Amino acid sequence: MPIYEYFCLDCRKRVSVFFRTFSAASDDAACCPQCEGARLRRLVSRVAVLKSEDARLDAMSDPSFMAGLENEDPRALAGFMRKMSDEMGEPLDAEMSEMVERLERGDSPEEIEKSMPDLGGDDLGGMGGMGGGNFDL
Question: Does the model's pTM come out above 0.70?
Answer without folding.
Answer: no
